[in-house]
UniProtKB/TrEMBL annotation:
Protein topology in the membrane: Multi-pass membrane protein
Ranges annotated as spanning the membrane: 16-35, 41-62, 74-90, 110-135, 142-160, 180-200, 267-290, 310-331
Protein name: Branched-chain amino acid ABC transporter permease
Pfam families: BPD_transp_2
Compartments where located: Cell membrane
Length: 352
């Protein structure tokens, strides 16, 4: 326990890799035995939580760690979902699915039936789009940055609706191979957490935090703030693309209506609730947000009753919103603030 309670920067390389190995082994064991313990419904919810963990920690990298108020996740998730779907669908299936018009030749012939490779390509495409977008986006800061990135999400959705030869328009894509098993999603989430965590606590991560705390001071100290912000943006887009690919496979069908601003808003709630800049907070808040929504689902059923209270459609959102409101009133910097779980454990141990 003493190793777990220390800050990561105080660990020796041997202790660090030992800790990573222990956590990895425990989580893999949990993934292996989960199907023997939980129902299919619970496994589906857990798989959805793992996907949102990937999206939350990647969004937290640009918004919380680097301090850039970006509202773009739905755009990159959509890119990842569509790239994965196009790569995993065979040319024969595409001929049947594209009803509005024939797909473009390179879209029809693009076929890579290797899930891991398709996910990597989805992430790379997202990163390349982020690199292109970084040049105009990071010419502004603050609220203007939020407006520009918000517009990007709308542009992607409109593009998907109005280019049926690429995306099949508003009809979307279905019959997507369901390669995203519960175990695979969990493994990808674990890899994503380890990679993002190592980035946050590297010298690049420290540079990202310096940009967040005072960009002008970081620039004066010789830090290439544009390069750091672009790297954070591209890294975030990569994992959002991978998460979008997993989401497309787990659902089996996608359409532009699934990638509205509501998806970005949900991720924003998660990282703010957990604490901006805290990876532990993002992970915990994802379990709280997605899991809480499922636990409260019976409230929408008219047959549910607790004393004089009857379930009605929409009651779940009202109750969940009140819970979130109370949490934010008593934890205004988020549940974890800008700290990680071992920092909190150490603080409480020292205070005790």
């Amino acid at each position: 326990m003493n190793v777990i309670k220390q800050k990561i920067k105080t660990l020796t390389p041997k202790e660090y890799f030992s800790l990573i190995a222990i956590v990895t082994a425990l989580f893999l064991a949990f993934l292996y035995f989960s199907p023997k313990i939980f129902s299919d419904y619970t496994l589906t919810v857990l798989g959805n939580i793992y996907i949102f963990i990937i999206l939350a920690i990647s969004y937290n990298l640009i918004n919380g760690v680097t301090g850039q108020f970006s509202l773009e996740p739905n755009g990159f998730v959509a890119i990842g979902a569509y790239v994965t779907a196009i790569l995993m669908l065979s040319p024969e299936l595409k001929s049947e699915i594209y009803m509005l018009t024939n797909p473009l030749p390179f879209i029809k012939e693009a076929y890579i039936p290797i899930p891991f490779l398709a996910l990597i390509i989805s992430g790379v495409v997202g990163s390349l789009v982020a690199l292109t977008l970084a040049f105009p986006v990071f010419r502004v800061r603050g609220d203007y940055l939020a407006i520009v990135t918000l517009g990007f999400g709308f542009i992607i959705r409109i593009f998907l609706i109005n280019t049926p030869s690429v995306s099949n328009g508003s009809m979307g894509l279905d019959s997507i191979p369901g390669f995203a098993s519960y175990f695979l999603i969990g493994v990808v989430a674990l890899i994503s957490i380890i990679l993002v965590y190592n980035i946050v606590y590297s010298r690049y991560g420290r540079a990202m935090k310096s940009v967040r705390d005072d960009e002008d001071a970081a620039l004066a100290m010789g830090i290439n703030t544009f390069k750091i912000k672009t790297m954070a943006f591209m890294t975030s887009a990569f994992f959002e693309g991978v998460g979008g690919g997993l989401l497309a496979s787990s659902i089996g069908s996608i359409s532009p209506d699934q990638f509205t601003f509501m998806l970005t808003f949900q991720l924003l709630i998660i990282i703010v609730l957990g604490g901006l800049g805290s990876m532990s907070g993002a992970i915990f808040a994802t379990f709280l947000f997605i899991g809480g929504m499922e636990i409260l689902r019976p409230l929408d059923d008219a047959s549910w009753q607790l004393g004089p209270i009857h379930g009605i459609p929409g009651l779940r959102m009202v109750v969940f919103s009140l819970i979130l409101l109370l949490l934010m009133l008593f934890a205004r910097r988020g549940i974890f603030g800008d700290k990680e779980i071992w920092d909190i454990i150490k603080i409480r141990r020292n205070n005790g």
